[in-house]
Amino acid sequence: MKPAFVLHEHHKPQHHFDLRLEQDGVLRSWAVPKGLPTDAGKDRLAVAVDDHDLDHLRYSDADKEIADIGWWEDEGSTERRLLFTLHGRSGSRRFALIRTDRDWLLHLTKNQPAR
Questions:
Q1: What range defines the domain where residue 66 resides?
Q2: Quick one: pLDDT at residue 7?
């Protein structure tokens, strides 16, 4: 079975997104204040937050909705960098999460999967 991902859009307390990747029986999670990058030249801050249970994959409520959902594929990760492709409702996009001293940067790679 392929590992799942979900992108939650939160409307309160401040608008932001949460990227959650299924790994080792939990959803590893990052808060991404401005959403996924759409330009390879403009990285986005990603703040690691507590892991979530897998039941959060389909969770939504009045203040949180699913912006995208699907599966993800590891493209060669290390301790300081996760390189992965999200296969969601709107297609496939390759990203890298790069660990900095304090947080992470979410980067849209220049090399994208064929459409």
A1: 4-108
A2: 97
